[in-house]
Structures are given as C-alpha cells and as structure tokens.
Design goal:
The protein is mainly alpha-helical and 122 residues long. Helices cover 59% and strands 0% of the residues. The protein has helices spanning 2-30, 43-61, 63-78, 81-88.
C-alpha cells in the first residue's frame, strides 16, 4: 500500500541521516583539530553517494530483469558442457557416474579428457 511505501521511504531517509550524522561526528572527533571548522561535503562527494544510492534503489525496484540474468548465469555455471565445447572446440561428453575402484583410480576413468585436451578412450 501507499502508506507502507511512505513509511519505508521515511525509514530509509532517517537511517541515512543518522549514518551521515554519526560519520560527521566521528570525523570531527577523530580527525579535525578543535580550532578548525568541520569539513563541508563537496558536490562530487554528494553526487557519488547519491548515484550509489540511486543504483541501490533501482536494483531493488527493478529486480526482475536482474534476477533473470542471475538465474541464467547460475544455470550456465551448472551446465559445463558449453564451456568445455568452447574451450576444447569439440563436444563435451558427460562424465561417468561411476566412481573409480581402488585398483583403477586413474583420472581417465572419471574425466573424458586428459590435461592436454586429448580425448581419453577407456
């Protein structure tokens, strides 16, 4: 509802204002000598923080396309056959499900290619 969004906005603004106040007090206490006035926030500093906050808000509000991209990335990380085919320039064979026995614990029993990229025939 509209009231909830207004509340979230007020909460975010008050949190930001509190954080800025605490940081300014910390800077004044720890780094600024007592006889100098507290530093003013430069326009570049303000714009960079505003840009980062805008990016965070945009990622929160428009999270659908970002999640679609992240889901596609996760799916491609779990399916390595495309990567193997692109790197080795040949189609990837699925790995064997069987675990090598103690007497034949060679890597070629598990992996379809050796280190040099040559296909291993059992």
């Amino acid at each position: 509802s509209r009231t909830a969004w207004v509340f979230v906005g007020c909460l975010a603004f008050s949190s930001l204002a509190t954080m800025v106040a605490i940081v300014r007090i910390g800077v004044e206490v720890l780094w600024v000598p007592k006889d100098e006035p507290p530093p003013r926030v430069a326009r570049v500093e303000f714009l960079s923080i505003a840009g980062l906050l805008s990016a965070c808000i945009a990622l929160t509000v428009m999270s659908g396309p970002v999640m679609v991209r992240m889901d596609a990335t996760a799916a491609s990380l779990q399916n390595v056959s495309g990567y193997v085919a692109a790197v080795l320039d040949k189609p990837a064979k699925p790995r064997r499900a069987a675990v090598p026995s103690a007497d034949s614990a060679a890597v070629s029993d598990v992996l379809p290619y050796d280190v040099s990229g040559t296909e291993v025939t059992p």
